[in-house]
Each structure stands twice: as structure tokens, then as C-alpha cells.
Amino acid sequence: MQPPPFLYIIAAVKSHLWCDALLVLLLMPVLVDATDTNLPPKASNDLEELTLEQLVNVKVTSVAKEQTDLFSSPAAISVVTADDIRRLGITSLPEALRLVPGMDVAQINANDWAVSARGFNAEFGNKLLVLIDGRTVYSPSSAGVFWNSQDVVMEDLDRIEVIRGPGATLWGANAVDGVINIISKTAKETQGLLLSSSIGSLAQDSATVRYGGELASNFYYRVYAKRIDVSESMESTGTAAGDAWNASQGGFRMDWEPPSQNVLTLQGDYYYSEAGKPTDRVSLTPPGTTLIDDHEYNESGNILVRWTRIFSDSSQLTLQTYYDHVQQEDGFGIEILNTYDIDLQDRFALGSRNDFVWGTGYRYQAVENTPSYELTWTPEIEYIRLFSVFGQDDFTVMRDRLHLILGSKFEDDSLVGWEIEPNGRLLWTPAENQSVWAAVSRASRTPALVELNGHLNVAAFPTAPPGPPALVSVFGDPDNVPEKLTAYELGYRVAPAKNLSFDVTGFYNVYDDLIIQAPNPTVFVTSPPPPHLLISSTWLNAGAGDTYGIELSSQWRVLDSWRLTASYSWLGTRLTAETSSYVGRSPSQQFQIRSYLDLPYHLELNGAIYFIDRSLSPSPTGLDEIPAYARVDLGLTWSPRKWLEVGLWGQNLQQSMHVEFSSQQTPALTEIPRSVLAKVTVRF
Fold first, then answer.
1. Would you state the pLDDT for residue 649?
2. What's the 3-state SS for 192-259?
3. Which residues are 182's β-sheet partners?
């Protein structure tokens, strides 16, 4: 008989000495006077100032494309606040996503992360849609996100809203297993001068300067510049990984908020980074496959305009357009992507029971991929046109008790044609402190360009003399269709007391037309020379499977000065035999607990522990088994003045080094080390 999943957690926890440290951390508030008044005042509009009762009812926009209470949102949604990021010394977006229950976040090396929700994690998590202030950062070539090219000023973040589960009805294709919506503060909320600098044992050095002011009445602006430098990590063999990286970024935001219920936003960013990227070079001459110290370069810029007209509490019109330019260069060639996007959204009431939102949009993308020996494209230039329209109605069946939400998105993609992505949700609120929701959704993932028209040479090796060399290749298929998901979800939230809340979600996902590598017969070919054996496979819609699981989270404000947050997730994966050989396995269990403690003398003691179960990670040679690991973070911040904050954090304290994920560009595994980070932030 298989023991229940929770016993594995208990056994793992008992076997680690850091439990003693955690016990000390949890007992410290007993010695602290919770009524201490020495803490520095903070801005009243910050999420960190809210009580727990207010936190669970914080306004979110990602579920319905309008403001709703998190507690009564009919979806598995979590919010990472600016206070979470500040207290834990988080310096990157992927690290912030570790705080979300059920998210699988793994660092590959010094400059790459793998991020997914509810399974199927890979270096390019192709079933997760990511937006920064309404601008999608999903790459059509690789079907994923280059996380080392996505950065913001952490102090200017308002929140990160994360939907676990499909959000395609409102957000469209590729919002299959989740939506990450990164939302910045307005320019009005970031007035004055901010200077921030950090230094770490891994040379995690950064410097940020930001200034905000008021140009005219109700017309606010901010400008910023940021620089980061990260030193290289070590491979499991003890050699340097050659993955050091640096990035420079700058930008601005302007918000005009006249009394006429209009809001106009103009913002833009420029980004440049250079990162070490060890890459396997493929050649038909001996030795075949050679690991070299290559480099990756990213240069990007964007500009966005958004106009919102608020007619009433139940009626609002929003028009947004943006241009985004990305030039990504690595060992596999150069990708130049230009995106033009326009989106219209209208929300209004239909009678006293219907809250209706609809929208339409058009996106044009010009993608140019310069080939290399490892990766070629046919054609090398692709023009993608996407037209979409959606509608969703929130029908009040019983006022303040029962809601039925029905909607669908219709998309015409020049690559794959029409897709329909409907969903139905039911929200029942039997009492003010309880909510129950259920959902059935359909979502799709558009094939990446490499899966449609790419040709990837993975490896080469000599055969036994006098045999010819062998080349291992993967081909795209232009007849591939979108991957499909049918998702069933059930959730329950309860706040049995004003200082305690629970959130539990169960889900069952059915996947069809998964794109996997289907093997081809080995053949002898003469082109390209020299004559060689071709061992190939083709990306085809030949995969299927399902995932199922439970996600549980809780918040408890033990004292006015002490808050605990805990979460546990369990994931089951069942794939067909053909699929299981090519698709990785996310950890079946994950557990975390965070403690935020306000101490006298303007001090804060904050800590977090994480347990991540074993996983299988895709690599060039198949699937690598990643052992289970635990992570412990502990930090102390000091704010002697309203304008000054000093922080010191120890990260990954449990082990000197551990592996979290493998790279798809090289079979070498990189270890994530224990580190120390110090940061000073000044505000005027």
C-alpha cells in the first residue's frame, strides 16, 4: 500500500536540521512585545499595510479583466505583493514566482530559469502566458519566455497576479496552464527619488536609480535606469559553468489622471543583456559534438499607450496598443521579432443581473530567424497575424450568493486557423467568509515556429570504423495543430477568523494533440557532406495525457507583528507511453512556509523554507532525474528612517549547492550555491 503524500513531507522535514532553526524562528515572537511602536510608518496604500482580512479581499484584475475580490474570484489565483518581494530580498521575477502555490520554478544556471504551473516544466514553459503591464512576452519561435530578458524595478512593482489553470477565454492562446500578470505601480505612486544597490557573494551586484515627479496637475511621470551583474556558477563536475551575465535597462512611465474619469498611460523600456551560454556545437567531423563557451545577446525595446474611460462603477472602456522589438542572439542563430498589438475592451451592465465584458484585438508579428548549422528555418521570415474577439457574461443567479460566468474567445491565427476557447464558471458564496467555485475550460497552445518549420541538429558522433558519422536531428511539421486542454477545477476558500484563511483547489486536466518527438527510420544521406547516417525524429501531434492535483494555501496573522503563510501542492501526471519519453515531470509534491516578523528598533526578521520533490527534466540526451531538495532563506531588514532601508539575506542556506533543472542546450548540470545578499535602498 502506498503511503499518503503528506508522510513523505513529514519524513523529509524530520531528516533536516534546519527544522530546529525554523522552530527558533517561529518561537521568537513569544519574546517580542507586539505593541512596540518603534516601527517606521509606511505608505497607507501599500499592500503590506493591509490586515489579513483585507489581504484575502485584495482587488485583482486577471480573472475577469476587471477589479474583483481575490476571495470571491472563481479561479485559482494568488498574488505576490511588493511587500513579499521586499521582505525576502527577491531580485528577479522568476524568484518571486517561487512564492506561488503549485508553481514549479527551477533555476537552470546563473541566467536561465524554467517556470510552469501544474506540470510540463521545461526551459521554455510553453503552456504559460506571461504579461508585463498588459504586454505579452511570449516568444512565437520557441513558445516560451526568455526569463533573463524580463526585468523590472522591483520597488516599482505593485503586484504579480498568477492564475493557475487556463485563462484562454480572456487572454487567448497559450494561456493553458496559467497566466502571470505582472503589474507596476502608477507614476503617481512612485514620486520622488529612489536609489537602490545590492551586492552578493555570487557578485549579484545591482544598482537602480528612479525619479518620479509631476509635470502638471494630475500628470505624473517617472524615469529609471538599472544595471545588474551576476557571476558564473559551477557545474556538478566542479568546473566553471561559463554562465555569467549582465544587463542594463532604462525606461519611463507617464500617467495622466484628469478629473474627467479618463486615465492615459504612456510607458516604454529599453533592455540590453549579455550572458554566457555554454552550447553544444555539432559537426560531422570528429569529435562530432563539442561544448563551447558561447554567448547570448538580447536587445529589446517597447512602447505602450493605454487609455481608459470610466463611465460608472459598472461601465468602463479601455483601448491599448504597443510596439515591441526583440533581437535575441545565441549559439543557434539570431531571432528578430517585431510585434504590433492593439486591443479594445468594453465592460458594461446588461440590466440588474448581467455584467458583460467583451473585447477585440489584432496582433501582427514579423519574425526573422537567421539560421546556423544547429538550427535552420523554412522560411526564415514569418509574418503572423492574429485576430481575436471574446465575450463573457457574469450572471447573478442569486444576489450576493450565486453567480454563473459563461464566455468564449475566438481567434484566427495565420499559422493554424480558427480556435475557440470557451469556459463556464460557477461561484457560490454561502456566507461572507466562504466561497465555492467550479470551472470547466478549454484552452489551446499554438505550435512554436520551430515545431512547424524548424530543423534542429541536436548531436553528431562517429560510428565504429569504417562506418560513416551519425547526425541526430529533429524536424518540424507544418501540419501541426494547436495542443488542446480540457480542464476541470473545484475550489473552496474560507476565513474562519479575521486572522486566518484557507484556500484549496483541486483540478483535473486532459491534454490532447501534445507535440512530441516521433522517431523516424534511420537513413543514409549524402547531404550535407560528408555522407552520414541520419537519426531523426519529427515534432508531431502524437502525445496525450492528463494531470491532476491539489493546491492548498493558508495565511495566519498570529500577532499584529507576525504573519505566517504556508502552502502545499500535490501533482499527479499520467502520460501515454509515446509521450512519457519526451515530456518532463514536475515535482509531485511541493511545500513552503514563510514567516514575516516585525521586531522592535525598526527591524524585520523574515524567512522561508521550501521543499521540492524529485523531478524529471528534459535535456539534450533525454530526461535527467533531479533529486529532491530543500531551500532555506533568512533575512533581516532595518529601517531606522522612513527614507532608508538596509537588508541582509542568506539564501539556499540548507545546502552548499544543489541542482534544480537541466539545460536543453548542453547536458552539463549547473549547481545553485548558497549565497548572501546585502541591499541598501534610499527614498527621498
1. 96
2. EEEEEEEEECCCCEEEEEEEEEEEECCEEEEEEEEEEEECCCEECCCCECCCCEEEEEEEEEEEECCC
3. 132, 160
DSSP reduced 3-state for 391 = strand
Length of the chain: 684
Contact 533, 524 (CB under 8 A): yes
- Bridge partners for 474 per DSSP: 456, 537
**Per-residue pLDDT, 51:** 52
Residue 497 identity (one-letter amino acid): A
DSSP character at residue 188: G
Nearest partner of 637 among 650, 624, 625, judged by Cα? 650
d(CA 370, CA 388): 30
Please list, in sequence order, all residues whose beta carbon lies within 8 angstroms of the beta carbon of residue 529, skipping any fewer than 6 positions away: 284
Give the closest residue to 483 by CA, choosing from 180, 174, 179.
Answer: 174
What was the pLDDT predicted at 54? 54
The span from the CA of 287 to the CA of 88, in Å, is: 47
What pTM was computed for the model?
0.89
Amino acid 242: pLDDT:
84
Pairing of strands 629-641, 234-235: unpaired
Helix, strand, coil % (nearest 5) of the chain? 10, 60, 30
Residues 316, 308 contacting (CB under 8 angstroms):
yes
Distances (CA, A) of 528 to 284, 423, 643: 9, 49, 65
pLDDT at site 412: 96
Over residues 600-619, the pLDDT tens digits come to 999 999 999 999 999 998 88
Q: What is the pLDDT of residue 13?
A: 34
Give residue 57's pLDDT: 60
How far apart (Å, rounded) are the C-alpha atoms in residues 117 and 127?
Answer: 8
Average pLDDT by consecutive 10-residue portion of the chain (684 residues)? Answer: 38 39 39 36 44 59 75 90 94 93 91 91 88 92 86 93 90 91 95 94 86 94 95 82 90 92 94 87 86 86 95 91 93 90 94 92 94 89 95 92 95 94 95 94 94 92 87 94 96 93 96 94 92 94 95 94 96 90 89 96 96 89 88 96 94 90 82 92 94
Ramachandran sector of residue 131 (left: φ over 0; alpha: ψ -120 to 50; beta: rest): beta
Q: How far from 506 is each of 165, 167, 434, 590, 652, CA to CA, in Å?
A: 11, 16, 17, 15, 30
Measured distance CA(196)–CA(152) in Å, rounded: 13
Report residue 179 as a C-alpha cell.
497566466
359: helix, strand or coil: strand
Are 646 and 195 within 8 A, CB to CB? no
Domains and CATH numbers, the chain: 5-683 (2.40.170.20)
Q: CA 500, CA 496: separation in Å to the nearest integer?
A: 6
Q: What is the 3-state secondary structure (H, E, C) of 517-580?
A: EEECCCEEECCCCCCEEEEEEEEEEEEEEEEEEEEEEEEEEEECCEEEEEEEEEEEEEECHHHH
How far apart (Å, rounded) are the C-alpha atoms in residues 529 and 185? Answer: 57
Task: Count CB-CB contacts under 10 A for residue 287.
Answer: 9
CA separation for the pair 606, 603 (Å, rounded): 10
Burial of 211 (0-12, 13-18, 19+ CB in 10 A): middle
